[in-house]
Amino acid sequence: MPDPQPDEPPEPVEPPPSAWAFGDPTAYDALDDLVAIGADLEPGTLLAAYRHGLFPMPSGTPGDPMYWFSPVRRGVLPLDGLVVSRSLRRSCRDHEVRVDTAFADVLSACGDPSRPQGWIDDDVRAAYLRLHELGWAHSVETWRDGELVGGLYGVAIGGLFAGESMFHRARDASKVALVGLVDRLRDEHAADRLLDVQWSTPHLASLGVVEVPRATYLARLRRALPLPRPARLVRTPAEVRE
């Protein structure tokens, strides 16, 4: 087997399978976003959850087990539906977008305890750092004058990108990262790729996020997972938007 090219990172490492089973996602409670409680945050468990349409979130009470959600109405961003205003286009020209050059810093910024409704605790942070080391979790970063001013992170499995959180320290910086992510997901498989944002909010809706029923999300997930990973998402050199 030929060695990878220098600018082509190795394939993600598949971890040992989870000791937990998430069951049939089509049989989850049709009225409740919370579908499971417990399990662990081992890499194999996290990947199994995403492949079943779930994602984890702590309850916020120390000592409580992990909560697992599969929203009845799922927020997704169609790759051809991103709304980019004139001011956001200007911001894109004023910033540099990079991938995976500061994953730990992005994760820490997203988990800043001073942020309202912060949910990224030490266990979650450690779990996603492990996923990043294995090649599954990625950061899309916004830089200006050599300073990290915004970004987002999420998990990429085949044609799924499951967005977890974003942050900004300058106007539009998180939006610029989102534009950069969408750019990198647009390829010959774009029609079947799935950009998951968990729940829609008024802010995300203004950027083009729509809600789909759980059954629709699961059907799209089944189409997305077998796709090849986006080549431009995993490139590590800094890239400047033109």
TrEMBL record:
Keywords: Acyltransferase, Cytoplasm, Transferase. It comes from the Bacteria. Its main location: cytoplasm. Its EC number is 2.3.2.6. The keyword Transferase applies. It catalyses: N-terminal L-arginyl-[protein] + L-leucyl-tRNA(Leu) = N-terminal L-leucyl-L-arginyl-[protein] + tRNA(Leu) + H(+); N-terminal L-lysyl-[protein] + L-leucyl-tRNA(Leu) = N-terminal L-leucyl-L-lysyl-[protein] + tRNA(Leu) + H(+); L-phenylalanyl-tRNA(Phe) + an N-terminal L-alpha-aminoacyl-[protein] = an N-terminal L-phenylalanyl-L-alpha-aminoacyl-[protein] + tRNA(Phe). It is found in: Cytoplasm. GO terms for molecular function: leucyl-tRNA--protein transferase activity. The keyword RNA-binding does not apply. Belongs to the L/F-transferase family. NCBIfam families: aat (TIGR00667). Functions in the N-end rule pathway of protein degradation where it conjugates Leu, Phe and, less efficiently, Met from aminoacyl-tRNAs to the N-termini of proteins containing an N-terminal arginine or lysine. This is Leucyl/phenylalanyl-tRNA--protein transferase. It comes from Nocardioides deserti. The gene is aat.
